[in-house]
Design goal:
The complex is a heterodimer of chains A (116) and B (112). Chain A has 116 residues and is mostly beta strands. Chain A contains no helices and eleven strands. In chain A, a hairpin with a 7-residue loop joins strand 9 and strand 10. Chain A is globular, with a radius of gyration of 13 Å. Chain A starts with a strand and ends with a strand. With 112 residues, chain B is mainly β. Chain B is 0% helix and 47% strand. Chain B has strands at residues 3-5, 10-14, 19-21, 24-26, 31-38, 45-49, 60-61, 72-74, 83-93, 96-97, 101-102, 106-111. In chain B, the strands form three sheets. In chain B, strands 2, 5, 6, 9, 10, 11 and 12 form a seven-stranded mixed sheet that branches. In chain B, strands 3-8-7 form a three-stranded antiparallel sheet, with no helix packed on it. The chains are: A mainly beta (116), B mainly beta (112).
Chain lengths: 116, 112
Amino acid sequence: GAVVSQHPSRVICKSGTSVKIECRSLDFQATTMFWYRQFPKKSLMLMATSNEGSKATYEQGVEKDKFLINHASLTLSTLTVTSAHPEDSSFYICSAREGRLNEKLFFGSGTQLSVL
Amino acid sequence: AQRVTQPEKLLSVFKGAPVELKCNYSYSGSPELFWYVQYSRQRLQLLLRHISRESIKGFTADLNKGETSFHLKKPFAQEEDSAMYYCALSGLLKQGAQKLVFGQGTRLTINP
C-alpha cells in the first residue's frame, strides 16, 4: 500500500524554539494533506488542510501564525510549530490523500512533540 | 457541521464472542463513513468504508441513515482484533471528498 513518511518521530525542544515536522508521500502524489493533533486518550483533531501550491485552510481555533503549514510539492508538506510552548506538547499526525476521495487517504506514523 | 460520536471509550470482550463498536454521526449532507484501526505501535489505517460494503478481517459495518449510525460488528472476536478503533466521517461533494472528522475512538480488548 501507499506509504506516508513522517519525520521526526519524536522531538524534544526548549520553550521558545521552533520545530518543523515533515510529511512525505513516498509512492504517490498527494494533492491534499491533512494535519491532526492528538491529545492523550483523545481523538484526532483536525488542525488544517493543505493543498499543493495554495494556502492551508485552518480549522476554527487553530492559530495559523503558530502552526505554519507549507505544501510546496505534491509529495511534501511541512508543519512548523513556531515559538513552541509546553502546551504545544502533543502527538501530531499527518495524512496524505491521493486524488479526491478519502478511500486513498494514508497516515504518517506521527510525531511526539515535547516542549520543555 | 460534521460530528462523530463513539460512546464507548473502552470495550472488552472474550475471544469468540460477538463484538459491536458503536458510532453515531451528525451531518446534514451526504456522508461518507469509515472505520479506521490502530494496532499497538502501528499507524492509523483504513479498515473499511460504507461505500464498498465489504467485510474486512471479519468486520462489517452498515450505514443506517435513519438512526445516523455506522456500528462496527464482528460475530466472533479474535485476540488480534485488540486495537484502537476510530469511526470517521467526511462529506462527499461533486468536487471530491471533504475533510475527515474522527470520533473519540474505542479501545477494544479481546480477552483470551
